[in-house]
Write a structure and sequence with these properties.
Chain lengths: 191, 155
Amino acid sequence: MERSSTVEWRATAVTSSRELDDFESVVRLHWLRIFRFALASLRDRHAAETLAQDCFFRAYRARDRFRGEASVSTWLMQIAVNLVRDHVRDRRLQFWKRARQTAVDVTAAASWIPATGASPETAALIKEQVQAVWDATGSLSERQRTVFLLRFVEDMDVLEIAAATGLKEGTVKIHLFRALHAVRERIGKAK
Amino acid sequence: MIEHLSAEQVSQCMIGQRPLELQQHVAGCAQCRAELAQLESALSQFRSAMREPANLAPPPAWRQPEPRPAPWFSWPRPVLTATALLVLAAVPVTWRARSHEQALREQAAQVADSQLLESVDSEISQAVPVPMEPLVTLATWNSSSTEQNQKAQRQ
């Protein structure tokens, strides 16, 4: 699997609390990652934007309490994970109502894959695969989905996921295994 | 030698944990290799799809949130003490005022209740309905005038 963004992740991980002094830069540097995680978790663009903004507001207010024990990236992801959890648990009904109006169009999302000169058959197969993984993640529990997205969209390793979610390493692995099993089954059905 | 990778072993491979035994098996088993390649491809395409639409939402201009009012427990000690004393002094006064108001309200409610009951009682105790009251008056007047006539005749 492509691991180029792991380098990006490690680079941003080498930070300290001084990084928080210039909060505008923090937002610029980490916005995409937080927004992307929120979008993939909630599947609602408006809700994801609101959640990402809320995440940075909370981080800004709590920046004095940041001890630098984890990287700023992991710390922000912790906040985002908690916000997603709260959002899913407390506002499930409202979320689904809004999700119907502004949900991400997976067909469009699949078509945004950079053109690689693939044949129409290959392009159709890719869309089918993306659809299958998307459907599978939709059927996962909130925790399994979070762990899966952090691993396979954000390229975080098991230890980083454990730090961001507050779960034990073994628990993260169990959630990953279950999520992967569900994805494999869905891909198998899509074939 | 393992026959084919179990679901758990596939997952292990996907999160980058490939012990030597698994590596050797994958190297020699076309079926497992194909299965891993397919899963890796699907996850890679999914990752690309998830990253592309997100690029369409640039970070918003950062505006510092309004500073929150200082929490009460961070006030200077003299201010805290004075506030506490004021609150303590205000409690009995407020309580008395409230209890007096409440007593008045209860009294008014009792009066209204008793008035209502009285009016109900009086309606129930009436011998005849209200529309027939003139007849009763007439009958009473007739009977009283007859008695007066009889008295006058006796005298």
